[in-house]
Fold these 2 entries.
Entry 1:
Amino acid sequence: MSVLPDERTEPTRRAVSSRVRPGNAALMVVLLAALFGAPFYLGNEYQVRILVLVCIFGAAAVGWNLLGGYANQVSLGHAVFFGVGAYAVVIFQGTLGWSPWLAMPVGVLVSLVAALVIGWPTFQLSGHYFALGTLALLQVFHIVARYWRV
Amino acid sequence: MGLLQSLANGLLIGSVYALIAVGLTLVFGVMDIVNFAHAEFLMLGMFGGFVASHHFGIDPLVAAPLVGAVVFGLGALLERVLIEPIIKAPPLAQVMATVGLGLMLADGAAALMGSDFRSVKTSYQTTTIDALGLRLSATYLYAAVYALVVAVLLALFLNKTEFGKAMRATAQNRGAAVLMGINPKRMYMLAFGLGVGLAALAGSAIVPYALVYPFVGQQYVLIMFTVVVLGGLGSVLGAIFAGLAVGVIQSLTTLVLPSELQNLVVFVVFLVVLVLAQGGVMRRVRPA
């Protein structure tokens, strides 16, 4: 497998080079306004919660796309970093009593450190083996998370 | 529990891992496809054994070959429709296709059967067999003997029969195999059907002791990959020995660590082997 796949197999590459058109930009602004305004016009907390989840999973998926789409590394263990971030916040905020505004960036930092530690061995793998290695990390994290009590 | 008892239990469990993994390694060796949906075919086999036992009163061990045959047909069909178009595609497409197939099978089973945990009743469920001072559970023993016999039969099939040789020839050199009058597309269908059929057969054989539910594959998916990688991707005999080894590692781990962590050691071994061996062992075993 070549390092840089051609345009036919990598449609995302074309999206990078194309400029944002004014129409699209206007649409984006409207959508963002609708999104940020949601808590004010939505009737109940449940709907707001769903919308928040949409944004969170969207962010996680965009993160995967950086690795899987642009860098062509199919990670099956991306949820590990989602989990590390979430657990870090719960531990710092819930157990240690930090402010969530401080716990969240620290969660990002912890996940970043985990990614560095995990990335060092796994990026020695390529193609299917990278997918297998990241799948193994997902399972290891799952076992550790279920077992470890903080 | 003594060391010998634990070793024996590990070998019994490991035989089943061996049978599950030979199908996966066969598909990889012949087609160069990593089938991330393999565990879901095991799940289909478990449901097959459950349906045979619960609705038709046929013992899962007796029904296993039939269940395997049905899933063989399904596998051959899916190969033609889903795998054939992506056989030369980049890994991204292959991983997406097989992971997606696995999700569809698991969620399809959940839609059809519900996501309850189910088990079968057999006459030998609580029987234990005492031999050489060891106490072996009949369900594990039967499944293990079954699995080992089938795995060895597969090894014989690949090495001794015309079909098996043709399949290995396709794995080694597709172009040369075509020149010898072998139809590689037919070999791919056969290999994929056989691979997933064996997983289903194993699934039916373990139903007497294992709970079945649509997402049971997740319990087995990484273990089967561990076995395949340890045994050398594409090597059937390697998978049999590695299956036994993984069963023993798992079983011995429970002697020193809590049972929730029994897979942790296996998976860490897997990661280390994967990272250390990718350039060496695997490239050597893999057909070019």
Note: Residues 279-288 of chain B have pLDDT under 50 and may be disordered.
Entry 2:
Amino acid sequence: MNYINNMIIDGLAFGIPLFIMAVGAIYSEKSGITNLAVEGFQGFGAFCGAVLATLLSLNTSLGDQTILYLAMITAFIGGAVYAILHALLCIKFRADQVISGVVINILAVALTTFLTSQISGVLYGNASNKFTLGVSSRFTVPGISSIPVIGAVFTNVYPFEVIILVLAVFMWYLMYKSKFGMRLRACGENPQAVDAAGGDVAKTRFISVMISGGLSGFGGMCFAYSILSMFSPSIYLGYGYLAIAAMIFGNWNIIPTFFVCLFFGLAKAGGNQLCIRMGLASIYTDLFMMIPYILTLILLVFFSKRNHPPKAAGEAYDKGKR
Amino acid sequence: MKNEKQVKQKGFAASLARFLTHERFSGFTVSLFCIVLMLIVSSVFLLVLGKNPLTAFMSFLAGNGMAMKTSYGAGAGMLSDFFQFLNVMAPMLLASLAFIFAYRCGLFNIGIAGQMLLSGFVATITVGYMKELSPWIARPAVILIGLIVGGLLGAFVGFLKYQFNIHEVVSTIMINYIISYLTGFFINSKFVDPISRASKTVSAASRLTLTKVLIGGFYCNIPLGIIVAVVVAFIVHFIFEKTVFGFELRAVGSNRNAARYAGINVGKQIVFSMMISGMLAGLAGVTYYLGYTNQILPKTLAGMGYDAIATALLGNSSPIGAIFASMLITIFQNGSNYMSSTLGVAKEIASVITGILLLFSACGGFFRFVAKSYLDRMSDTIDVRFAAQKDGKPIGSVSDAPADDAAKKKGGAGK
């Protein structure tokens, strides 16, 4: 029983930040900008948050949890600002969007690694490649948590999981129920029509990519606090790409993507628990780490034909195109 | 535009625009323009850090044996550094050729790193760990394994794309991680060297780099892979320019539907181009893991797999261009250690510089587009003026004014 509880607790802690990154990716792609840069966005966002957290903990007497929330907001802003680069390349400079995404990722890894060693050199006197962060508190809802199995959902919850779910509901509303969201989705399907109806394709896409960067940065910060409890280049574990895979599975829709992310999280945590339960040495976790990726590949075989990616994604908007 | 031939606008902006849209060498000039931009931006970056950019660039060169270092260790000299540079350049060139081959067919092979790792791993555990093998058998065997493993992996990706419509970017990323964990597990559990925490080194007979060869009093590590890489670059060039297969590949890459109407078997081309791309990546893998590094770090994908994309972009996705581009990128990557020791800047700055270069090369098409539309607008202006002055004054005297006008407007050229 304990194993199942642990699996659910860890699975949620992994799946929910992944979900918000996937929502970010959806925002960008639905507006017609292919987004492979999630990995870079989340790393850069987490970097900004970690720098702020380190500065605050050195210079002020704020509590760990206050710093955590401030760091998350900074990560959101940092990710959004960094995403401007992707937006500029894709929208203004009409670069190939896949290439731009790859470039953004390479630059993010290089910049954050470089700046981490520079900044930590200034702050601590000797350059290191990481910022150590505090530990996020967790809470357990009394009463409900004692129900078997379902109770695990309410046990040892990170506060950011709740924030993300609230944020995701808002994002869902924004995309499917608001005027902006309708424009955004139209930009991904038929940008010429948006233009004809008086919308500004470039502006809509620009905002969407920035939202995408912000959400990814937020997700990255959650990973930095929950899994690593520090910021270092090891934040580039490939979760950004996993979020993209989740998005494709979820057929570019927010609600199915949520379940896919939960599934990824449970598969990963389940693999770890299985490994512990079978009493295997820690090197065997590598084999279980492959599970989400292999599952993705297999499921893609079955679902790819029915997928409906945004029609205009991947092309720069061309006014004159018929 | 009847006067296009005679009209030569003066001014810096116009000549730069002509330079960028040169009929034959546009690919080369745009890349050169990106490099100049990169040098400017990274100089500013270095100045902000309080370092002398000139010293930095000189030490990048010195780290690659293209300029003198202040001091050398025993038995080492410029020549040894230069061969070390070639050691890194060989896999880089092959990897970028791998990207180019798929890219010309309209496919993005993001999985080069994974294909390199798997072929390097298979070659290491088979031939690399086999004792008492003649180098004449071992080395060709290593290359063959690289080709086969990489080719199979590439063909698999192409098959998934063709049969199940799985986007190659997604499938290669997934496969990258699977390979990384899988090989990591086997290395950690079976082939690990307890001291270096990497896989055990391969036998000298199977290594594609001849180590410690005495040339002119210096010990050099001579990479055999560089010869292979340059030859392959010319073969790829030949395939693209002179064969039907290459033409069909490019046709599929430029317009898949048109190619289908023309009777080209698109699915076959996709699978084949991914397969050959994978084979080249496999070659890059064996020259990297069994030549340059000589061992495999578990669970680490070579950054080269992604840098190769930069190289291909910079080389304007032409095989010959890739030779020069891989030289440049390698200078930064390989020279970073020496630069870091002389300047006291973290060596990651080399990756930052590469990233900046990439950023500009991604905009290469845009630069060309701006230059072209700028020139078009200029010649339109001249046509209008020319038509207005029916008596036909010498054109040179007319063209000065619009060139200056347009130079002022240059800020608006992008809009």
Note: The first strand of chain A starts at residue 131 and ends at 132.
